[in-house]
Amino acid sequence: MKWSEITIQTSDEAVEAISNILHEAGASGVVIEDPRDLQRNWSTPFGEIYDLNPAEYPTEGVILKAYLLDNDELSRKIDDIHQAIENLRQFEINIGLNRISVGEVNEEEWANAWKQYYHPVRISECFTVVPTWEDYEPASEQEKIIQLDPGMAFGTGTHATTVLCLRALEKAVHEGDHVVDVGTGSGILSIGAAMLGASSVRALDLDDVAVKVSKENIALNKVEETISVEKNNLLHGIKEQADVIVANILADVILLFTDDAYRLLKHNGYFVVSGIIKEKKQLVLDGLQQSGFEDPEVSEQEDWVCITVRKL
Q1: Per-residue pLDDT reduced to its tens digit, 143-171
Q2: pLDDT the model gives residue 92
Q3: What percent of the chain is predicted at pLDDT more than 90?
Q4: R_g over Cα of the chain
Q5: Is 42 exposed, middle or buried (0-12, 13-18, 19+ CB in 10 A)?
Q6: What digits encode the pLDDT tens for the residues 100-132?
Q7: Which of 151, 185, 270, 279 has the fewest CB atoms within 10 Å, i.e. is most exposed?
Q8: Are the folds of 2-117 and 127-311 the same?
Q9: DSSP conformation letters of the chain
């Protein structure tokens, strides 16, 4: 069996959206090569537990790599991927060069290609993300391990937007809380909420692939009794009250359901949103305020913003 390696040179802003496009096309995982990782100065003691090779990183923009089966449908899929990325312009997303190249790899190379990119990463006071094949011993009893298999996950879970969300959830989620995760993707935020003591988590995603992947990751981390996963468009049709609602998606999509989030949150509940580029921070803050939210707390990493607000 042969596989093709799809390489896309784009912008950091478009990483999350293009990752989703690649998964919808049948890719099992996405590798992100961002040259800023080479110069990153972590403001906390948490960071990569391995050395990065500068030769593997682009000099302009960000590189995404994914693997698709080399079959009769490949050419059509590449055209569809290119067009889907071009369509992101209507959401005012900078897609950078949008340069796509295709290379061939055999099955054995493909099976091992992922492992060079994925290593344990301590991303917060509580959480370390560990690929399934790595042996890793927690440094303390307080450290929580989230296991992900990049062969079936949406990235490594260490993109800035995910890191910011997990850190925000550490403050927002309390023992016994009911949490709703909108656009769950890999399920990593739902898993984190369960590990922080939530008594129930409802994970929602409109994409069938995301629903399947999140269920697999949730089972891998043995929190399936706490988390339910279902296909759903944002918060449409959801009626039960929540203590915390979290959404790591595009700024324009967040603004579509701020009223629904306010309606569903309990008094003093938290709404945590990320996937927001700095240029749209004020737009989202204004939308949240118009829906009635107060007490905003903003955290930033690189060009990304996470906002936590409350229903008081």
Answers
A1: 999 988 655 444 456 678 888 999 999 99
A2: 86
A3: 50
A4: 19
A5: exposed
A6: 999 887 666 655 665 666 678 888 888 998 887
A7: 279
A8: no
A9: -EEEEEEEEE-GGGHHHHHHHHHHTT-S--EEE-THHHH---SSS--BSS---GGGS-SSSEEEEEEEE-STTHHHHHHHHHHHHHGGGGGT---TT-EEEEEEEEHHHHHHHGGGT---EE-SSSEEEEETT-----SSTT-EEEEE-TTTSSS-S-SHHHHHHHHHHHHH--TT-EEEEES-TTSHHHHHHHHTT-SEEEEEES-HHHHHHHHHHHHHTT-TTTEEEEE-STTTT--S-EEEEEEES-HHHHTTSHHHHHHHEEEEEEEEEEEEEGGGHHHHHHHHHHTT-EEEEEEEETTEEEEEEEE-
What residue type is assigned to position 109 of the chain?
Answer: E
Contact between 128 and 52 (Cβ < 8 Å): no
How many CA atoms lie less than 13 Å away from 291 in the CB half-sphere? Answer: 25
pLDDT below 70 — which residues of the chain?
Answer: 1, 28-29, 35-59, 106-118, 149-158
Structure-token pair, residue 174 = 């309390």
Domain ranges of the chain: 2-117, 127-311
Query: Tokens for 218?
Result: 């949730």
What's the token pair of residue 280? 């749209």
- The pLDDT score that the predictor gives to residue 48 is 42
User: If you classify domain 2-117 with CATH, what class do you get?
Assistant: alpha beta
**pLDDT score recorded for residue 60:** 76
